[in-house]
Amino acid sequence: MALIRPKEIRAMRPDDIRAKFKELSDELMHERGVAAMGGAPASPGKIRALRKNVARIHTIMREMQVAEAVKAAAKAPADREEKAKGRKGRAEPAQKPKAAKKESRAKKEDQEEKK
Length: 115
Known about the structure:
Elements: H1 6-11, H2 14-36, H3 46-75, H4 77-88, H5 98-114
Helix pairs in contact: 2-3
């Protein structure tokens, strides 16, 4: 099992990358199952190489997702500003003042002492 170079992965189409990821994940699961049953793998370093290839492909897939998200965010900066303006006008949820919290705690303690 040879390592797949990142340059080779990036040259693939997204569908091919997902297919390769699925194929390697299935093969890794099979090899782990064989090892768990007590069988010796065909090559001692095969599981390690599979793990690294799966991780490498997963990393590049994630890089692609982040790049798409950055592109989408760059296209619509006005939307974010409008949403931020809408949030500024809203009131914050009311909180109990600290004195009220202390009073309620004191009431609970008094009730416990009476019991």
